[in-house]
Specification:
Layout: H1 4-18, E1 20-22, H2 23-29, H3 34-46, E2 51-54, E3 60-63, H4 76-89, H5 98-111, H6 114-126, H7 141-153, E4 155-162, E5 168-181, E6 184-191, E7 196-201, E8 205-214, H8 223-232, E9 238-244, H9 248-253, E10 261-265, E11 268-275, H10 278-286, E12 292-296, H11 298-316
């Protein structure tokens, strides 16, 4: 059933498009009785919309001659924010929602004043954002909307999920929030099947159904921080400890947030991590702009030395 606000806006739209329309016809078009229509007209008048009313059994309504709703007005900064938001949406794994993005762009252009419209088109034509990557997943927009609503309203849902191995399962789920990381969207919250906090990739969720239950999330829960910490501490072949001789803020800027856990200690910052590929980890260390000490494993030192030898050879080769 349409919300009353939706019907009020429909009345305004009809008045703008028809000019003059009879009361009974207008009431019929928005599927309300004449008495309710009068209440909607009064609401519009309270909002400052000037409406002329013709009294009588077959009375009519019309907007005051010459009245037009003002166009949406944006500052240059606001127009830029909207443009960049639409561009960014195309790079966040929402390719399946391209028609909606194009529709939003068209609607904005229709209501914007000509100078801002030109600026909007200029941004779209000249600005390029780095794509999320070839591995970016494309979740259904309805799934994202349903789970974001559930997280905001603190309403439990029932999920049907397919794992990376193709196994299907079902569980009740309390969504604390959603996050985008590494080309994929995740819903993070309490899983009632596993009795703990878990993350579910949105593109693997087959169905979402609301439950008649509510929940209270942990205070100040940070979805991205949880994702970074969980991924950084997954069981892997090698445990790594490196002392970075710098302060915590600079240390974190040297690496991807998911590389490991950072702890301020005497002499710098201790990076604790796990990896299956020590050669890859050595290449990450070779990029940092601070001194460091490899504490464990010893094999990582050998991998770093091998990488340094390769770099030195590349630097010396040539004409």
């Amino acid at each position: 059933m349409p919300h009353p606000t939706t019907r009020v806006l429909a009345v305004l739209e009809l008045l703008q498009s028809r000019g003059r329309i009879g009361g009974p016809e207008l009431a019929q078009r928005v599927n309300v009785d004449v008495r309710t229509l009068r209440r909607y007209i009064a609401l519009l008048e309270e909002l400052g919309i000037p409406i002329t009313t013709e009294r009588g059994r077959h009375g009519a309504y019309m907007l005051v001659a010459g009245f037009k709703l003002p166009p949406m007005m944006f500052t240059d900064a606001e127009a830029l924010a909207i443009s960049m938001g639409l561009l960014a949406a195309r790079n966040l794994g929402l390719h399946a929602e391209a028609p909606a993005l194009a529709s939003a762009q068209a609607k904005l252009e229709r209501v914007l004043p000509e100078p801002l419209k030109r600026r909007l088109r200029a941004v779209e034509a000249t600005v390029r954002l780095e794509p999320a990557g070839a591995l970016a997943t494309h979740p259904a927009g309805t799934t994202l909307m349903l789970l974001s609503h559930a997280a905001h309203a603190r309403e439990r849902v029932h999920l049907r999920y397919r794992s990376a191995q193709g196994e299907e399962s079902e569980r009740d789920f309390d969504a604390y929030g959603l996050g985008f990381r590494g080309g994929a969207w995740y819903a993070v919250g309490h899983c009632h099947l596993r009795h703990g906090v878990r993350a579910f990739r949105l593109d693997r969720i087959l169905d979402v159904q609301p439950r008649a239950a509510r929940f209270t999330p942990p205070a100040d829960f940070d979805v991205l921080e949880w994702l970074h910490r969980t991924i950084a501490t997954l069981p892997r072949a090698h445990r790594v400890e490196v002392l970075l001789r710098t302060d915590p803020d600079i240390a974190r800027k040297q690496f991807s947030p998911a590389i490991g856990l950072f702890e301020a200690v005497d002499g710098g910052v201790l990076l604790r991590a796990r990896t299956d590929d020590l050669a890859w980890f050595a290449r990450q260390l070779a990029r940092v702009a601070c001194d460091f000490e490899i504490r464990t494993p010893k094999r990582l030192r050998r991998e770093l030395a091998a990488h340094a030898t390769k770099l030195q050879k590349l630097a010396m080769d040539g004409p």
